[in-house]
């Protein structure tokens, strides 16, 4: 092949690579929603049906469907979009789904660490652009039954609008932001991916990111009808030097799991799917509570991650390093294969109203092991209401056909080098409450015995 032809092919290849990504330009904007509310942010992209907007501090991303935007500013000039109108409850809760920025400080009280974090623009922003929901080649469960959805390959760069640095065939990295814009239920979609790394991610209603393994350095915003999950028996690991926040916006499981539900579950040797219907009736999809098989926190010293909402690990919840925070009213629950672990270089903090415990009774081994530090409230954010540590009752008799090593295991175990601290605004009303999982019909599944039947509830045991 002659040199001119080689040069031509090389030039074409470079042009294709350059065309695979557009420049990421963030400009200040003010959106006026059709119901009159105003939203300040940084405009990142204008799609056919959506506007893609960063929060003012670049700590998270949100899409706004244009049908809910009356106007927005671009280059300081107003752009009219839709006529003002009143919104229905469904529009407010599902289609628009706007209650403020994830990374904003609460209206009252001290600022959480994540609200003080300063962010720069990412190396690249990836916006899922295949929003038509076709072909409907998959399904998932919801409280309304099976939902048809499109299943698409996240590794296919053609499915993304890439703003900033081109992908050049490489995997996503810890300076890549992702947003899966919300769509109508009939256009639901699932994005499947392998081992991935990213900074911020937002999965909005009827949009799901399902990974083999993930490493996350920034903020995670999972709307009630969205999902970000590790679906394999692998870890979701939270890393990096930043103060970050993870919000899984679903109703508290403790309010959904009733005694009747647990009895229905326990009656069936296969953990009766009928029982799930009771839970699903109070939430969009039960499966969306599950973040990963293993939740690992490996933050740099001095950095933190704060969990908000209601979150399940299908196995391990292990804090290796840095500070892990269970924010106000957060519930962190893991399955019973392994105990939760706060290692020597880690700190776990529980804020007001938080719950830490297994989501079903763990007959043997420790529920929670503390080699590092656990703080109930902090000097800057003292407890203003009770926090709960839910521990299991143990089988020292062999009644349930499982060895408990002579009764050496416990629900809550602090090693010699471990530390516990408490900061309460009022110790008479803002306490640390240790309780059995099933003591008052609170958060708990019924753990199956080896013969396939459910354990009795704590209240039903002989006293």
Describe the protein's topology.
Elements (H helix, E strand, L loop, with lengths): L2 H17 L7 E7 L4 E9 L3 E5 L6 E5 L3 E6 L2 E4 L8 H7 L28 E5 L9 E5 L2 E9 L6 E5 L11 E5 L8 E10 L2 E3 L3 E10 L3 E3 L4 E4 L4 E6 L2 E6 L4 H4 L2 H9 L5 H8 L9 E10 L4 E23 L4 E4 L5 E11 L4 E4 L9 E3 L2 E4 L10 E5 L20 E3 L4 E4 L9 E5 L27
Parallel strand pairs: 7-11, 9-12, 11-13, 12-14, 13-15, 14-16, 14-17, 15-18, 17-19, 18-20, 19-20, 20-21, 20-22, 21-23, 22-24, 22-25, 23-26, 24-27, 25-28, 26-29
Antiparallel strand pairs: 1-2, 1-5, 2-3, 3-4, 5-6, 7-10, 8-9
Helix pairs in contact: 4-5
Structure commentary:
There is one protein chain. This protein has 463 residues and is mainly β. The chain contains 5 helices and 29 strands. It has a 23-stranded mixed sheet that branches. A 6-stranded antiparallel sheet has the order 4-3-2-1-5-6, with no helix packed on it. Strand 1 and strand 2 form a beta hairpin. The termini are far apart. Residues 1-19, 264-276 and 440-463 have low confidence and may be disordered.
How many strands? 29
Largest sheet at a glance?
Answer: 23 strands, mixed
Q: What portion of residues belong to β-strands?
A: 35-45%
N-C termini distance: 89 Å
Radius of gyration: 24 Å
Low-confidence stretches: 1-19, 264-276, 440-463
Structural class comes to mainly beta
Q: What is the mean predicted local confidence, pLDDT?
A: 84
Number of helices: 5
Measured as a percent range, the helix fraction is: under 10%
The gross shape turns out to be globular
């Amino acid at each position: 092949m002659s040199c001119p032809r080689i040069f031509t092919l090389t030039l074409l290849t470079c042009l294709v690579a350059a065309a695979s990504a557009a420049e990421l330009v963030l400009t200040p904007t003010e959106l006026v929603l059709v119901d009159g509310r105003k939203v300040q942010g940084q405009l990142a992209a204008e799609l056919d049906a959506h506007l893609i907007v960063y929060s003012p501090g670049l700590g998270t991303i949100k899409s706004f469907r244009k049908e809910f935007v009356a106007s927005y500013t671009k280059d300081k000039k107003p752009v009219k979009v839709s006529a003002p109108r009143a919104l229905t409850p469904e529009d407010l809760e599902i289609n628009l789904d706007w209650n403020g920025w994830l990374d904003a400080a609460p209206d009252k009280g001290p600022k959480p660490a994540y609200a003080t974090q300063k962010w720069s623009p990412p190396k690249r922003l990836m916006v899922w652009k295949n929003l038509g929901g076709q072909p409907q080649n998959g399904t998932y469960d919801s409280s309304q039954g099976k939902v048809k959805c499109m299943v698409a390959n996240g590794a296919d760069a053609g499915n993304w609008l890439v703003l900033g640095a081109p992908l050049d065939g490489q995997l996503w990295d810890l300076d890549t932001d992702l947003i899966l814009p919300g769509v109508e239920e009939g256009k639901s979609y699932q994005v499947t991916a392998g081992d991935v790394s990213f900074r911020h991610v937002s999965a909005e209603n009827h949009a799901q990111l399902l990974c083999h393994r993930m490493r996350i350095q920034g903020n995670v915003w999972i709307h009630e009808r969205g999902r970000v999950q590790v679906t394999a028996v692998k870890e979701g690991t939270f890393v990096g030097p930043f103060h970050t926040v993870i919000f899984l916006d679903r109703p508290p499981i403790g309010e959904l799991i009733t005694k009747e539900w647990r009895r229905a579950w326990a009656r069936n040797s296969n953990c009766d799917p009928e029982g799930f219907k009771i839970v699903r009736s109070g939430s969009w999809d039960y499966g969306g509570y599950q973040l990963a098989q293993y939740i690992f926190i490996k933050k740099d010293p001095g950095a933190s991650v704060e969990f908000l909402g209601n979150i399940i690990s299908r196995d391990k919840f292990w804090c290796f390093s840095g500070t892990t925070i269970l924010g106000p009213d957060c519930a962190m629950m893991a399955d019973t294969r392994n105990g939760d672990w706060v290692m020597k270089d880690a700190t776990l903090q529980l804020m007001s109203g938080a719950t830490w415990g297994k989501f079903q009774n763990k007959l043997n081994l420790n529920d929670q092991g503390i080699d590092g530090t656990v703080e109930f409230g902090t000097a800057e954010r003292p407890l203003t209401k009770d926090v709960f540590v839910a521990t299991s009752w143990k089988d020292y008799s062999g009644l349930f056909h499982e060895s408990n090593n002579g009764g050496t295991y416990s629900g809550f175990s602090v090693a010699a080098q471990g530390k516990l601290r408490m900061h309460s605004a009022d110790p008479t009303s803002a306490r640390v409450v240790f309780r059995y999982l099933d003591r008052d019909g609170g958060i708990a599944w019924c753990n199956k015995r080896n013969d396939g039947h459910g354990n009795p509830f704590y209240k039903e045991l002989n006293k």
